[in-house]
Amino acid sequence: MTDQPAKSLEDVVREDGRFPLEAFGFLHDGLARAVREVYGDPAEDEPPAEGEPPPKHVTGRQLCEGLRAEAIERWGLMARTVLHRWNVRATIDFGHMVYLLIENKLMQKTDSDSIEDFRDAYDFGSAFGSESIFEADAQP
């Protein structure tokens, strides 16, 4: 049996339908940022011992923090609005995205990882501002 994905990312995202493809691109960039924040710039590190891959695992909470920093850097006060437009309204939604990729062999996890690691990593209102434009538009 192979560990290769059976479907492309585009197929997985389209079939699932909860989040747009752009959200997964953002997830990828946030993951890269979280890895850099936890392990440093790979160019500055000593090379790993022969036969050992460089460390790259981050926890769900570390990933959420990387995603928050990436969103604020990219969109500033509009971060919550962009995420809301992508159906990402809480950190658990990042977990749903990650676990969709894991289930489709597009990402890996360790035995200690759980989707619960993403639950309530932080409050979107505190992290990105009290309300998004979409939420404000919905009010009477």
Question: Considering DSSP H and I runs of 4 or more, what fraction of the residues is helical?
Answer: 40-55%
Low-confidence stretches: 136-140
How far apart are the first and last residues' alpha carbons, in Å?
A: 55 Å
Largest sheet: none
Structural class by helix and strand composition? mainly alpha
Number of strands: 0
Rg from alpha-carbon coordinates: 16 Å
Note the overall shape: globular
N-to-C order of helices and strands: HHHHHHH
What would you note in describing this structure?
The chain has 140 residues and is mainly α. It has one domain (12-138). It is 53% helix and 0% strand. It has seven helices and no strands. Residues 136-140 have low confidence and may be disordered.
List the helices and strands and how they pair.
Blueprint: H1 9-16, H2 21-39, H3 60-75, H4 79-85, H5 91-103, H6 124-128, H7 133-138
